[in-house]
Amino acid sequence: MKVSGIVAAGLLAASLALAQAVQADKSALLKIDEQFSADAQRLGVAEAFARYAAPDARMLPAGKDVVSGLDAVKSQMAGFPKGATLA
Question: N or C: which end of the chain has fewer CB within 10 A?
Fold first, then answer.
């Protein structure tokens, strides 16, 4: 009986630690999303997207082939309407 109680306590502690880590990751992701949104409003969507995209970024424009690489993505985003916002 004592062993199963110890195992249960260990599982509970591990579950709590995992839940805290997930919450921290979620909070960090939301903070970056809020920063991106603010930058998109201030700089424009295309510029903000280019600043946050990885060097090996890819996107799939509607009805077109995959665009690969940061420079290609920047070129694709250059057509994003000025003054347009993200909903």
Answer: C
